[in-house]
């Protein structure tokens, strides 16, 4: 009986918790008329909500935006972009708590990196905000043109310094917090869904291509070259496998690198300097490594020793930088945990295989040396020495 009651209470708590995350349960009303907003949306990112009413008689849009800042000293904002679909150009309303009081500011956003107050191109009235239980609500009415849809952008940030909003995060949740708002209500984000999915898909393609090339194929090619050539029966098969693996890694890696450049050009103001610089270094080193194939001297050539140093040092450098950059990419993309776990599993498997082959290789090499020493010693004895 007690367990049944406990289960019922937990179930009730879960239902209440779930319903509290839905805009339909919030029942917000317009400040002056005390009537419910005509429409409400559970915004798809940053656990945010928008209630709104479009008044055709005076071309006004009354909104109530609800979001939780990342920290008690953080900020939330919502706005319309009359010139594009991104953050730059957005006419935003921001709110945050300072000294126990709620503060509202309007921002004419002209840069990703600097968020300073500015007069909006939209006429705004009935502007107010409130804060309770870690949630900030922004209320406003804006004059909009006679259109059917507008570009909306919303955001949350970690802190405020000297009255200025500090830069928000650049995780996918932050970067995707934008969409097309249909003033008539109904299904929203229908047309922007493709755009968001396209950008996310391109980032995922970039990550997968680079993880497969620098993070899997390239180390695999090094393992093939280091351990298969120990066995005479594998010659020259190991060489062609090694070259094929590294050429495939290079082609896929260059495709991933080019995708990254495209993403960077489409995200003006968003820069991951270390990730980008390592990517450029990987491309340059891998290109040098490809040239090593054409510069490869014969085994008995006097410059073969120096070629080996050049070839091996660049190869191991690519592996190290590739692994570092892949995990940097994971931090930027912030994908579901299963992706990072899977990749770690693949790398761990390659590492175990490499260790086992290293042991086998040393056993083979030591046995050959022992056999060679024995034959040489017997030969001297046969000659009476």
Automatic annotation (TrEMBL):
Residues 164-366 form the Cytochrome b561 domain. It comes from the Eukaryota. Gene3D superfamilies: 1.20.120.1770. One of its GO terms (molecular function) is metal ion binding. Heme b binds at residues 206, 242, 275, 311. It is found in: Membrane. May act as a catecholamine-responsive trans-membrane electron transporter. This is Cytochrome b561 and DOMON domain-containing protein. It comes from Lupinus angustifolius.
């Amino acid at each position: 009986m007690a367990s049944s009651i406990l289960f019922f209470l937990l179930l009730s708590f879960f239902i209440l918790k779930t319903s509290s995350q839905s805009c339909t349960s919030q029942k917000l009303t317009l400040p002056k008329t005390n009537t419910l907003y005509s429409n409400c949306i559970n915004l798809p990112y940053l656990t945010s909500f928008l209630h709104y009413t479009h008044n055709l008689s005076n071309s006004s849009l009354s909104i109530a935006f609800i979001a939780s800042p990342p920290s008690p000293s953080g900020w939330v904002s919502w706005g319309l972009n009359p010139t594009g679909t991104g953050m730059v150009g957005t006419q935003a309303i921001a709110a945050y708590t300072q000294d126990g009081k709620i503060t509202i500011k309007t921002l004419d956003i002209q840069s990703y990196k600097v968020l300073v107050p500015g007069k909006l191109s939209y006429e705004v009235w009935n502007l107010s905000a409130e804060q309770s239980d870690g949630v900030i609500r922004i209320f406003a009415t804006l004059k909009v043109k006679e259109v059917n849809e507008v570009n909306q952008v919303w955001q949350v940030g970690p802190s405020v310094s000297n009255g200025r909003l500090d830069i928000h995060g650049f995780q996918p949740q932050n970067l995707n917090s934008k969409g097309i708002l249909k003033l008539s209500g109904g299904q929203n984000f229908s047309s922007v869904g493709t755009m968001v999915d396209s950008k996310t898909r391109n980032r995922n393609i970039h990550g997968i291509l680079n993880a497969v090339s620098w993070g899997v194929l390239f180390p695999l090619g090094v393992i093939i070259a280091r351990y298969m050539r120990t066995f005479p029966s594998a010659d020259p098969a190991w060489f062609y496998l090694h070259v094929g693996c590294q050429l495939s890694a290079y082609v896929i890696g260059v495709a991933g690198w080019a995708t990254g450049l495209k993403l960077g050009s489409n995200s003006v103001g968003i820069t991951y300097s270390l990730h980008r610089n390592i990517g450029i270094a990987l491309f340059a080193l891998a290109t040098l490594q490809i040239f090593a194939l054409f510069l490869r001297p014969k085994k008995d050539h006097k410059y073969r020793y120096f070629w080996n140093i050049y070839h091996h040092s660049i190869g191991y450098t690519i592996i190290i930088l590739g692994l570092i950059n892949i995990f940097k990419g994971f931090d930027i993309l912030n994908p579901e945990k299963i992706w990072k776990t899977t990749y770690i599993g693949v790398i761990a498997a390659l590492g175990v295989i490499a260790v086992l082959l290293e042991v086998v290789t040393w056993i083979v090499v030591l046995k050959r040396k022992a056999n060679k020493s024995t034959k040489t010693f017997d030969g001297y004895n046969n000659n009476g020495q």
